[in-house]
Design goal:
By secondary structure, this protein is an alpha/beta fold. It has a single domain, classed as YqgF/RNase H-like domain (Nucleotidyltransferase, domain 5, 2-Layer Sandwich). The protein contains 4 helices and 5 strands. Strands 3-2-1-4-5 form a 5-stranded mixed sheet. β4, α2 and β5 form a beta-alpha-beta unit. α3 packs across α4.
């Protein structure tokens, strides 16, 4: 399935299909899931990266289990909006998954998502570094997915006005 934009995605989804947000790191994959109405994102879990077949099997299971209609990857642009070195890692992973899972793919700007989540955990939850590390990738995936869902909602509101 091709890469699509946020504007193109709604026409490709069936009612009730969820979105899966992915924060691809070098050691882990943060996972978040939207509700069936595509209004709210929830952190699902952090998956330790392994061999690609293991990661793909995990994603395939989540897609089937949760009726996922599209994958929303965090796209780690630089603060200036340029392609970062980490973007290539995300693109490589997304290309491999797209070859096996016929779902639309969106690359969504995730600048500062991990920093924002870390700040929230420090300020609001007074979490230790070790406890934050176990949660931060899934929460970063939820942060970026919620941003995407908010964008979709705003676009739909503008269309109905």
């Amino acid at each position: 399935m091709p890469y699509v934009t946020a504007e193109q995605l709604p026409a490709l989804l069936q009612p009730g299909q969820r979105l899966l947000g992915l924060d691809i790191g070098s050691k882990t994959i943060g996972l978040a899931l939207s509700d069936a109405g595509r209004s709210f994102a929830s952190a699902l879990r952090t998956h330790p990266r392994g061999k690609f077949p293991v990661d793909l099997a995990m994603l395939r299971q989540l897609v089937d289990q949760h009726q996922v209609g599209a994958l929303i990857y965090g796209w780690p642009l630089t603060l200036d909006g340029d392609i970062s070195p980490s973007c290539q890692r995300v693109r490589n992973f997304a290309d491999l998954v797209a070859a096996q899972l016929p779902l639309p793919v969106v690359l969504w700007d995730e600048r500062l998502s991990t920093a924002a989540v870390n700040r929230m955990l420090i300020d609001q939850a007074d979490q230790s570094r070790q406890k934050r590390a176990a949660k931060v990738d899934a929460l970063a995936a939820a942060w970026l997915l919620q941003g995407f869902l908010d964008c979709l909602s705003n676009a739909q509101q503008r269309q109905s006005d």
